[in-house]
Amino acid sequence: MRRLLATALLTLPLAVHAWGSDGHQTVATIAAGLIKGSPAEARVAALLGDMPLPLASIWADCVKGIAPSQGYTYPAPGKYPACAALETPARIAEMADYVRRNDRQCAIGLDEDSCHKQTHYADIAVQRGRYLPKVTGTRPDDVVGALRAAILVLQGKPSPGQPNFKSQREALLVLVHLVGDIHQPLHVGSVYLDAQGRRVDPDKQGFDRASFTIGGNGLLLDPAATTGSKNFHSYWDNVPEEFRPQHVDAAWLAEARQVRPDAGDPLTWPARWGSQSVKRANATYEGLSFSPRQGDTWHVSLPDGYGARADAIKRQQLTLAGARLAQLLRWVFPRPQ
Ligand SMILES: [Zn+2]
Q1: Which of 137, 188, 288, 304 has the largest CB neighbor count within 10 A?
Q2: Per CATH, is 4-8+19-332 categorized as 1.10.575.10?
């Protein structure tokens, strides 16, 4: 779920969170399985207390239910069933406290209304082929920058200040979520389209606000041709039944254990994962055709066999995200302490 409030898409049912809550909980369930018995498991439990890792993985999305315009209250409990366990007075107070420090204290991006929301993504033109700082669609507090900030806080080092984390617990809550988001290809790579629905390159041709597709949120799907998603971004957030957290079994964990850990300083990992997602995003846009622009949206048609291709990428990305989250947690929490 991203920036829908700023668009006409507000009228759509907002049942969709990034990766959907299912995807995030699948990533966290894989990671929880892989850190079992390690010092990282104990450190995570010490920070999260009675909040299980899968519930922690959707905290940063449920935080979007806090309304700054209504005194930082949580006006619509029950709206997102997945958030129910976070809707206790103490947990709502914790979410409100985070939003107070991460509301308007940054340079607000395009189509955005709150600092904490824009930490969930970047919008790099797929033509770049990788994550590069300072190109169109990046910010110091984009998903790569926010992950780096969370890692620094968990290492006990000074953070760049955006997002504002008051504690290691808060940094962990956001990190667990964003490792999922950065593996959703449309959270990092984007197409930019002209009025005729042709691809343009904002870094080479100059950025035109009208070419912005809001990370695929502005690409409307013909509902009859899809699994029920209204736009291309939410199509990619949704995961099929067999990828839900309850289907994380020994075989899936074994597969995740085979993922080779990244080399080098973990502070470089988010940009590397982001680069991989830009390449994957390019693949997700392969074979698509776009209508001319209507208002600020385009209609998109998917080629035959697209669903199976998408599911294979989703499965791979969820597995990578779970494995890498576990690797990152083991790295920042090497000792029981
Ligand atoms: Zn998110």
Answers
A1: 188
A2: yes
